[in-house]
Each structure stands twice: as C-alpha cells, then as structure tokens.
Amino acid sequence: MKVLSVVGARPQLVKLAPVAAALSAAGHRHRIVHTGQHYDADLSDVFFSGLSIPDPDVRLGVGSGSHGVQTGAALAALDEVFAEERPDWVLVYGDTNSTLAGALSAVKTGLPVAHLEAGLRSFNRRMPEEHNRVLTDHCADLLLAPTEEAVRHLAREGLAARTRLAGDVMVDVCLRTRDEVLAARPAAPPAGVPAGRPFLLATLHRPGNTDDPARLAALIGALAGLPLPVALLVHPRLAARAREYGVELARGSVRVSRPLPYAELVAAVLASAGVVTDSGGLQKEAFLLGRPCTTVRPETEWVETLDGGWNMLVPDPYELPRDRWARLAARPAPRAARGAPYGDGSAAGRVVRLLEEEGAAGG
Length: 363
Ligand code: UD1
Prior knowledge:
Elements: E1 2-7, H1 10-25, E2 29-34, H2 45-50, E3 58-59, H3 67-85, E4 89-93, H4 97-109, E5 113-116, H5 128-139, E6 142-145, H6 148-156, E7 163-165, H7 169-184, E8 200-202, H8 207-210, H9 213-224, E9 230-233, H10 236-245, E10 254-257, H11 262-271, E11 274-277, H12 280-289, E12 293-295, E13 311-313, H13 322-329, H14 347-360
Parallel strand pairs: 1-2, 1-4, 2-3, 4-5, 5-6, 6-7, 8-9, 8-11, 9-10, 11-12, 12-13
Helix pairs in contact: 1-7, 1-14, 3-4, 4-5, 7-11, 7-12
The protein binds uridine-diphosphate-N-acetylglucosamine (UD1).
C-alpha cells in the first residue's frame, strides 16, 4: 500500500510521527508532502528531527497568506504531486488550510482520501479550523474519528457509513514522549522561569484571541496579573500581532520564550502547575499528563477534557475579579479520574489497519 501524507502545520507533524512509524513498521510505502504552511524552524524542522520523522519527500513552500491564498497555493501545487505519485490513500490530518487543500485536491484528482481526526466540532463558525474540518469530513472517503463524540457528530451529519473509530494518535506520541522524558531527566521549566517554584505554562495563537488589539492586550494583562510565573511560549502569529499592536508580552508575571520542541514541551507541562492555552493539542496534552488546564476560548472540541474539572473554559479571564481568575488558573489538579477517552496509545497501528482494510474493500 502506498500512502501519501499531506502536512503543513505544527500539530500535524506531531500526529505524523506515530503514523509514519506505524506505516514503516507494517512495510508500507509512505510519501510525505509538506505544504510549507509553517516554515519557521521552531514550528517545523525541530519536529522532524525531534520526533524522528523522515524528511518530507516534497516541499511545496506555500508559506503565509490569507486563507484563500494559502489554501489555493497548496491546492494548485498538490494536483501535480498527486498525478505523479498516484498513492492508494491520501492522508490528511486535522483542520488546517493544508488539510482542506489536501482533501479537495485528492477528491478532485479521483484519489481516495482519509481524514485523521475526523468529526471534531467546535460549532463555532467563526473559526477557520471549523470550516476546514467540516468541509474535509464531507469530501473524504474514510473518516478516522479520534473519539466516540466525534463518531456521533459525523453520524448526525449523515456520514456514519464512512466513519471508523480509530482513537487519537496524539496519545501514542504524548505518552511515549512522557516516558522518554521521565527516564532521561527531571522535568524542567522553560528558560526564564525559576526552577523549583510553581509556574503556569501558557500559549495563545488563535486569531480570535490574537487579532483584536484590545482583546490581546486584555488577555496578556490577565496573564501578567497572575500571582505565579507564567511561561508564555510565543507562536509567530502572537509575536507578529503583539508587535503590530504595540502590546508588550514580557510584563508582570509573564516570561516569554520561543515555541518548544515536542519533548521539551512535554517536559515543561510535567514541570508546571497547570496550563493556560487556546491550543487544541495542548489542552489534551495537559489532560494526558495530569495537569489542570484553563482554556481561553468559549468552547472546546475536546469536551472529554472538561470532565472532572481537568479543563475549564474561561473565554474572557480579564472580566473576572483578579483573585477569582488567579484561583481558577492556579487551581490544583482535580482528584477525579480521567479515564482514557482518547484511547490507549495504540491508535497509529489501528489507523494503518483501517487503511489496509478499507483500501482492500474499495476505499
Ligand atoms: C495554524 C492552523 C491551526 C493550528 C495552528 C498550530 C489554519 C487555518 N490554522 O494556525 O489550526 O492550530 O496552525 O500552530 O490552518 N507564521 C510565521 N511562521 C510560521 C508560520 C506562521 O511567522 O512558520 C506567522 C505568519 O505571520 C502567519 C501567521 O503566523 O500569517 C499565522 O499562521 P497560519 O498558518 O495562518 O495559522 P496559525 O495561527 O499558525
């Protein structure tokens, strides 16, 4: 079987790692196309080296741009790649512009396409990711759902026949990395945060949080006012908007640092007292690693993380009284059991088996 993975952005590289390993272990041919949506070394190269992912076979170099420009550039370039490679499956990951381009190009070229992380929904139609995941699910041939909840969403949209429960491949890579980190070194805070003291780990990059100057300033103000150090890992979008709007990031409790390679991120979550984020992946990583998470969004696709108070949604923290916000963000880890709603860490093998079976059955 020949599988062609289309990736472009950081979270997809994390998911690609266990899938690439499982495809190789099963003796299948695998081609990797990197659209170049993320091009900074911090968001791309360090994931290939750190997670032992084979180098991409094709780099499209689409770079940044408006949604139309970015998606369109990838779409145009992929037609040619698909025509040349003719894989048995095109595999797309998640909800980015690269994913939508990969799915659309595959379906138009007549190639079977599978969507890993199908069925996630925020029901927030202002999010570009929501457009991308709904459209991708409706054009893909095989919907690899990470959770029972995702399976239900797809069934409600009339897509049950194409849906299979695969589990979440992020669990595979997160738990494996956790074990490696714990075996190799004591979990360490990011640079700039004093060792041995409780701190929070924070990220913000969603357009809904970064692209309005007043909201961005208020959110950074809320982090700056917390009573313990906040290690803010600065995504390029956040850096660019903060510069443009004149919002100082490094103030009060906030210590800024660059985005971390995956193993260092896992080490930082383990060393932290909790996480404040708007990232989908980090909400789940906090949950898997047993740290309380506060999500700066009105909703989450990963609703299972909310059970037992492991994750809490606080869309406008600057509107809360300061002490209440501090108690919330720095709350201790709940006692509630977390269960294993995202699977047991063997999802990548299941993904490969489903591709084999469904491919043999005619895609
Ligand atoms: C994208 C995904 C989002 C994912 C996130 C993870 C879409 C619509 N969004 O959001 O689902 O959670 O990646 O990081 O696909 N930039 C750089 N260097 C880079 C990449 C981006 O400087 O390597 C800057 C550019 O100014 C760019 C901006 O960041 O315009 C945003 O990048 P973009 O790919 O549009 O979206 P993300 O916010 O990264």
